[in-house]
Amino acid sequence: MKLQGALWYVQSLRGWLLAILLCSCTPFSNTLNGQHRFPSVPAALQASLPAECAASSNPYVYDNQTLYAYLNGGADLFLKHGFQFLHGTVCKTATDQSVWLSVDVYDLGSEQNARALFQKKCSATELASEGTFLACNGTGYVQAQSGKYYIEVQSLNHQEDLLPLLQEIMVRVQKNLKGVIRAKK
């Protein structure tokens, strides 16, 4: 009888230890080393938008079969550089309802593909570098490469005065993409 009680106690203890071990491996927080984590690129993209813009956000997704519908005449360049997916959104600013912004994140499968496309689309004179993050801008747009992503943020009205806002969104997108939880292969 005492032996059965002792065995039950050991098995219960073993069960609790296993439960504690499993729970300690499960992420309870959406941050890791101070970096905000996101379950997907669309979630990171949505979190990158200013509050005024996020409320009117209209997200979209394209793959290599549907990219031609979005980039009529421009899809071949992206496909040639390993295009996988495009996650984007269009939103309007609260301060001026006639101002629309678009944010497009192109997954090109590898950093080499993204860098090659970025270099093709940006002239060297506009180039700014911050580690693995490359960016250039022009009238009403900012383009960047970060890891395997090529990113475009633009004012659909091509307004120059929005450049600081576009740059702010670009920095947020780049930072948030680093926090996308990678699916195990």
Structure description:
The protein has 185 residues and is an alpha+beta fold. It has one domain (30-177): Protein Transport Mog1p, Chain A, CATH 3.40.1000. It contains seven helices and nine strands. The chain has helices at 2-25, 41-48, 51-54, 67-70, 75-80, 111-121, 163-177, and strands at residues 31-32, 35-36, 58-63, 85-92, 100-107, 128-130, 133-138, 141-146, 149-155. The protein has a seven-stranded antiparallel beta sheet, sandwiched between helices. A two-stranded antiparallel sheet has the order 1-2. A hairpin with a 2-residue loop joins strand 7 (133-138) and strand 8. The protein is globular and about 40 Å long.
* CATH architectural name: 3-Layer(aba) Sandwich
Figure out the total of helices. Answer: 7
CATH class: Alpha Beta
Poorly predicted runs: 6-10, 12-35
* Beta-strand percent range: 25-35%
- Total domains: 1
The average pLDDT score comes to 75
How many individual β-strands? 9
Distance between the termini: 50 Å
Class from helix and strand fractions: alpha+beta
Q: Globular, elongated, flat, extended or rod-shaped: what is the shape?
A: globular
**Helix amount, in percent?**
25-40%
Strand order of the largest sheet: 3-4-5-9-8-7-6
Radius of gyration: 22 Å
Largest sheet: 7 strands, antiparallel
CATH topology: Protein Transport Mog1p, Chain A
Q: SSE layout and pairings?
A:
Blueprint: H1 2-25, E1 31-32, E2 35-36, H2 41-48, H3 51-54, E3 58-63, H4 67-70, H5 75-80, E4 85-92, E5 100-107, H6 111-121, E6 128-130, E7 133-138, E8 141-146, E9 149-155, H7 163-177
Helix pairs in contact: 2-7
